[in-house]
Amino acid sequence: MDNLFELLEEQIKDIYSAENQILKALPKMAKAANSLELKKAFETHRAETEQHVKRLTQIAEQLKIKPTGKKCKAMEGLVEEGKEVIEEEGEDSVIDAALIAAAQKVEHYEISAYGSARALAEKLGEEEVADLLQETLDEESATDEKLTQICETIVASAPLREGEESEDESGSEEDSDEEGRPSPRGGREAR
């Protein structure tokens, strides 16, 4: 790569590959999810991801480049990690929390990739491209926030350790701070 335009082209190809890999993985994630809210979040994000691919195609046309021809190896690894979670057996809420963790790794990769590509487009004076990349970046960030909210709900009822119920299951409030959040170390004072 000899210039920033070539770097932007490589970034667009990488993101395009990543988004297409995600399109294939999301239905499997939705099927593996136990929580209806999580299933819906994965299904909603699949529809958004289809729009992301269309935007990337539009960006490639504007830049007069082909978005294909590169395999995003990072996403390949993240999708593989997600497959491992899908194959796991265990407590429904714990599996859902693991699915969310895998999905958020993907989101964080995308947030980074779109942010970098947007910065390159801005530097190159490609304002319309930068705006399209920012639009997707905003959606990826919103998805990440939504997954965090769902996770907080799911882990509230998940077992903590073998033989230990979560605070919500036991109904105990003595291990909480003034605002009802779990205290560090299960309510024991730091020594």
Outline the structure in words.
Helix 1 runs parallel beside helix 3 (73-87), helix 2 runs antiparallel to helix 5 (127-155) and helix 3 runs antiparallel to helix 4. The protein has helices spanning 4-32, 36-63, 73-87, 92-123, 127-155, 167-170. Helix content is 72%, strand content 0%. The chain is elongated and about 60 Å long. The chain has two domains: 4-158, Ferritin, core subunit, four-helix bundle (Ferritin, Up-down Bundle); 162-191, no CATH class. The protein contains six helices and no strands. It has 191 residues and is mainly alpha-helical. Residues 169-191 have low confidence and may be disordered. The longest helix has 32 residues, at 92-123.
Low-confidence stretches: 169-191
| Oligomeric state as shown | single chain
CATH topology name of the largest domain, in short, is: Ferritin
Report the mean per-residue pLDDT as an integer.
88
Helix amount: over 70%
Summarize it:
The protein has helices at 4-32, 36-63, 73-87, 92-123, 127-155, 167-170. With 191 residues, the chain is mainly α. The protein is elongated.
Keywords:
191 residues; mainly alpha; Ferritin; 72% helix; disordered C terminus
What's the structural blueprint in terms of helices and strands?
Blueprint: H1 4-32, H2 36-63, H3 73-87, H4 92-123, H5 127-155, H6 167-170
Helix pairs in contact: 1-2, 1-3, 1-4, 2-5, 3-4, 4-5
